[in-house]
Amino acid sequence: MPYNRPPPERRSRQPDRFYSVDQANVYHSEANSTIQKDLTEMALSLLPPHVVSSPMLDMGCGSGLSTQHLPPHSVGVDVSLSMLQLARSSNSLTPSSYVCGAAFSLPFRSHTFDRVISISMLQWLSPDQLTQCFMEIARVLTPRGSAVLQVYPIDLDHANEMLAAAAKATNSSPVLVADFPHPNSAVKWFLCVDACASPLSSAFGHDKCPLARRLDGTCAYRYRHRRGLEYGRLLHEHVQYAWHAYRKVKRDMQWHGRESHESGAAKAAPTRHHKERRVFPNEARLVHRLVEELPTTNDTGLTLDDLKANAKTVAEIMHATFESLE
């Protein structure tokens, strides 16, 4: 039977009441620990690589599954006492590293933190609380501070609401980045606020990517590349998408070619493989450019090894073809 129960943040806007002692223990599981570790490491990898001396704030730390992967002397804040009690009893950080407080009313002095992260918290907030939350983030961050918040936008409107609230409160150009914790994972969304970065408004359109098209987000590969961050695994995702498109278009062209030369009743179209993913509406144009611009070692056409050997070119072709549709 499929699991179709709404997530907790859709059932309750009061996490301090939702996460009772029993519910907090259910949340603090080994499976959640692995997920939180992946998401936390991803959020950390999106932060600017400059050296900082002040502690990091984990906003909405819950039972500390994310805080325990942060640098020493980091501080976790959460509104649920049950979660905080579990964090203090199960993690190696000192009890003073966990503070009870709401994201829209942080109990810290201004300009306290150089970096703020948040994992799976922002969707709990109402629109008014969302705006106040970003105002609080702007207040506690140092002038050259940065924040990365892993979020679950419901739809494009919700994503734009988050971006607008962040831009207004921080007076910066926040970016919604589509990233992948590992190749077999679904896309995850990270709202990045970098106060010391140059405005992205002029280059934002060039960061669009078919991998991030559901929420009109920014390509993590280009976002990371511009900031000198590691991006190798993201090239793998681009290559896989391009390979699925190439295989699908080539197969369809072969089928239509055979059909035009065969007499009698038309045959059914070939069944689409369950792992094939639609990249974007103009897949045929993407494949045409791949064939025209990439060298191949096979007389019958491109191979997956050809795409892997030219991964950066594949990514640029994908972006250029996708942007031409805008």
TrEMBL record:
Domain of life: Eukaryota
Protein name per UniProt: Methyltransferase type 11 domain-containing protein
PANTHER family assigned: 18S RRNA (GUANINE-N(7))-METHYLTRANSFERASE-RELATED, METHYLTRANSFERASE-RELATED
Domain Methyltransferase type: 57-148
Organism: Aphanomyces astaci (Crayfish plague agent)
GO biological process: rRNA (guanine-N7)-methylation
Positions of transmembrane segments: none
Cleavable signal peptide: none
Cellular component annotations (GO), alphabetically ordered: nucleolus
GO molecular function: rRNA (guanine) methyltransferase activity
